[in-house]
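Handout, page 2. Input:
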Amino acid sequence: MAEKIALDQFTHESDLCTLEAENAVRCQVCAHRCLIRPGKRGICGVRYNEAGKLKVPWGYVAGAQIDPIEKKPFNHFLPGSQVLTFGMLGCNLHCSFCQNWTTSQALRDPQAGRSIQQITEISPEELVAVAVKHGATALASSYNEPLISSEWAIDVFKEAKKFNLKTAFVSNGYATPEVLHTLSPWLEGYKIDLKSMQKNRYREMGGVLNHVLDSIHLACELGLWVEVVTLIIPGFNDSTDELWELSRFLVSVSADIPWHVTAYHPDYLMHSAGPTPAAVLQQAAEIGEEAGLHYVYAGNLPGRVGSLEDTLCPQCQKVLIRRRGFWVLENQITAAGTCPDCGQKIPGIWR
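Output:
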């Protein structure tokens, strides 16, 4: 609790809520829709009610660095470019296999190791200036769950637009229609984790599967560039039936959604499952392709998954972008976003 109180100095008032009886507020940025009474906090631990006003994170980063955009991962969003990635503390879910748990679970788990002493106070103007100085073409909110600090991200992104920089979220997708509509004028790329198609798995993580599925639908309808990532965990979400169900769902939204199947390594509280073998990723990718997805990628095992790191034209099968890990080795997509051989339009944000 001391960590949460110390973070309260880095907050702004938010109107992404409704006012309820007895000075309570109902938060609208994530699908929990927490009813927060005066002096109490939402499930995320960082949004709280101060005398009938919703106070939310603003004005600091717990991490910020220049990364290849492929690390997010995005494969159809400014390939080969550098992005300034920034994050805060906290999350609205509690996944036992979290790969970023030192930031996402910092307010929930004393073993996380991140604290108020390790954050940096910064303004949107200062953060964007760092991106410009280092030649970044985009800013991405990541590391923890960006939805719970949407107001901060919007202010950063508004400043980024003054410099013609693109913007992105790396998110669990546990959103509300209200927050997606609020974000959409300032957001271009939305990477969503679809962790499982099993309702009970999402209950274990503290969420509801259908809310994530609804977010994928709505984000696409709003015109955001959506890429979906599934961390393939042996014995957790790697059954053939589940991978088929997930693939068919994505196809039902759009066959052009890039689907990234990525390798798990034992981390945080889940050590019972071993690292994901390359063959399992390849099998998952084959299911996605057979289901009708045009762009399926395998990640976290560079050089071990063949052409599944590359972007191929779905019409003529020409290799358009060759990758190794986070690095683009060759990019032949035209300035118009098409295959140079057959003219097939390749969906994405290329410039």
